[in-house]
Batch of 4 targets.
Target 1
Amino acid sequence: EIVLTQSPDFQSVTPKEKVTITCRASQSIGSQLHWYQQKPDQSPKLLIKYASQSFSGVPSRFSGSGSGTDFTLTINSLEAEDAATYYCHQSSSLPITFGQGTRLEIK
Amino acid sequence: EVQLVESGGGLVQPGGSLRLSCAASGFTLSDHYMDWVRQAPGKGLEWVGRTGDKATGYTTAYAASVKGRFTISRDDSKNSLYLQMNSLKTEDTAVYYCARRNRVTTKEFDYWGQGTLVTVSS
């Protein structure tokens, strides 16, 4: 099973700040890495697919990079509505696995 | 508009059974892989299992934690996905989401339902 480890687990940030969340895979997964945003009491929503491709309708301040084992989700100029938990997900091999999540709090 | 609506959750005793449904609309269900993902209260996301699309013969795969107890099925004529859960344990308590995979790439979950809560308790 491929283990995904996100860091940090929690971050408190101010609006307009730039945020970086990392996801490290226990073995190489190519670009089979996707990012989701989950706001409180809502279902997850796809942000970034295949490490760096933005999903339709996602604001341009969200971007992704990386390949192999190390991946990054970047949020430029954070807005209050970005308060959420962010998860990475690997689709390289079964079983499908998710990172433990990174909760962003807006100060 | 793509919509996924789960139903069937509720309170069940340990050892009991429950069947969840996911009603799909706005797309052709048979064209897509479909998954179930769960989230225990206050915890992260956990993959439960998936069914392939019509082209792949609707093959299924399951997480080790539910294999042999849970069964995923689908009725494309009713645009519905199901999760039959047997021999339920307290650790199966979670919100259960159905999720659609992209039709072409079959990898990322591009749409999710709102979830249905299953509570396993005596």
Note: The CA atoms of residues 85 and 112 of chain B lie 20 Å apart.
Target 2
Amino acid sequence: AQKVTQAQTEISVVEKEDVTLDCVYETRDTTYYLFWYKQPPSGELVFLIRRNSFDEQNEISGRYSWNFQKSTSSFNFTITASQVVDSAVYFCALSEKPYGQNFVFGPGTRLSVLP
Amino acid sequence: SQTIHQWPATLVQPVGSPLSLECTVEGTSNPNLYWYRQAAGRGLQLLFYSIGIDQISSEVPQNLSASRPQDRQFILSSKKLLLSDSGFYLCAWSGVDSNYGYTFGSGTRLTVV
């Protein structure tokens, strides 16, 4: 069965600090897709990234970066120089389909960035 | 481009009253549609998903039901609300036009009093 674990329930950092959100997944599929979503206080889930299991290259998008390591079944998310607007709940998710059927969500990590 | 609309944004309903939340998707055909619930401070719980008109799968037994009367319309209903039905309800779609997995609606915050 597929499972996503986000061991950090809540994290608090001071603005401009770097922060890493952990995501560990379990699947028996050889082909799968990993996602990160952001849920700001307004509630809507915002897509951040999708990564397929064949692409282990790390990705950087501005202050955001993702480290995908198949050997440890992890897909960690790092925010560099955090800002107050980064405060949100972040969800990691796993799917065996490219367009997200049968998503398995992690429990989420609540990030608070303090000014 | 594809868009998803969900309404109402907030709702306060008394216990025992009926419920109807609506979700529509535009700009795509035959989407997979989903209803999720998020209790306060909790993760996302899949309630229903649909792969086609009148094809509904329920993930958890509950006081709620879902219907898909049209290809791009997904409705969440209840005949009699319970206090435990309070939460944040999110509709989502996915499909071949969805390059990035799920696209979520803006959510409905339901408070049962």
Note: Chain B has a mean pLDDT of 90.
Target 3
Amino acid sequence: GAVVSQHPSWVICKSGTSVKIECRSLDFQATTMFWYRQFPKQSLMLMATSNEGSKATYEQGVEKDKFLINHASLTLSTLTVTSAHPEDSSFYICSARRTGNEKLFFGSGTQLSVL
Amino acid sequence: LAKTTQPISMDSYEGQEVNITCSHNNIATNDYITWYQQFPSQGPRFIIQGYKTKVTNEVASLFIPADRKSSTLSLPRVSLSDTAVYYCLVGDKAAGNKLTFGGGTRVLVKP
């Protein structure tokens, strides 16, 4: 089955620094990837849709300058949390769907802790 | 996007069948119903998907009535390892079509 790899699985950083999270589709091409954020004991909240070769589409209330998304190739999307603050601490998850496949494949998630 | 409503939590015992019903009253004609399972600190995992009637795979069954305004995920003979959060999602199959998660159902399987 299709695999989506997410890296790193966890990261601890100081307030004010930027953190980059990578999401790769290992055995298929993904023209579209999705980024979610999940707080403890809550559901996944869609942050943005990452489109290969074009700008990401952000959900209402998500700051595009805060959460930079780059989808430079058909197998890689990155999410950069800029100038991270403690309130950005969360579990970030990416997903991708192969064209013609009904399933949405998820990465294993990245736990971000901002001190 | 079609909104889904699920019970917040359910308790069960090993070996029992667990049925989780999801309401999606405003499901669109092109929408499919997909269920995912999520363990703590992991990404969701696909369980099953259907459009109408009944779908069965090696881990679960999905029952969808004719009006498609609800669906029921059935987990036969659960084990402790089935303790997880189960999400019902409704959306179009198109690759670029986003899926929005509802609250999910937290299933606790007891020994």
Note: Chain B touches chain A at residues 32, 34, 36, 41-46, 49, 87, 93, 95-96, 98-104 (CB under 8 Å).
Target 4
Amino acid sequence: DARVTQTPRHKVTEMGQEVTMRCQPILGHNTVFWYRQTMMQGLELLAYFRNRAPLDDSGMPKDRFSAEMPDATLATLKIQPSEPRDSAVYFCASGGEGEATEAFFGQGTRLTVV
Amino acid sequence: GQSLEQPSEVTAVEGAIVQINCTYQTSGFYGLSWYQQHDGGAPTFLSYNGLDGLEETGRFSSFLSRSDSYGYLLLQELQMKDSASYFCALYGSARQLTFGSGTQLTVLP
């Protein structure tokens, strides 16, 4: 069945290390969103792509975060260097053509930076 | 930018009806969506209002009033499994999907 796949599901890393999170959107979906969820900030939009082109990444700390879509089947979110305040659940979601009347979320990557 | 406000918590009893309100500010948008998220899970889509008025999907209904910058989610015949967080979200004119802070619904027996 069609679903958004995120890897890894869990990641524990030390402060200063590079972290790469991956997302496979649903085949045929042309919009991809990256969100960060914490208790304090809720669901924050970090970046989003349409037809693989970045539309807005103003929600990301530019000095350490980067988001890319090297091809239509893969989106990546990278943190370098990671910090304890980056600990959160990171969600990827994809949507189809036209109005995003429904965004499908992956199961998320739970990141812990120690 | 876009911003949405919703109550942080709502409590109701099984079988009751509950309404979760959402007010928003935006410079332009296509529609208002609602998502459900259980603890430890991912948000899942519930409904979308592209036009003013009421949309009904089973026990859930959603309403939008563009003139009032307001929408709500109505849950009827509440069940224990409806205990979750509920988010309103704006699909903006720049095709961004911005979420409110979420409402934690607790259904009591």
Note: The CA atoms of residues 30 and 51 of chain A lie 5 Å apart.
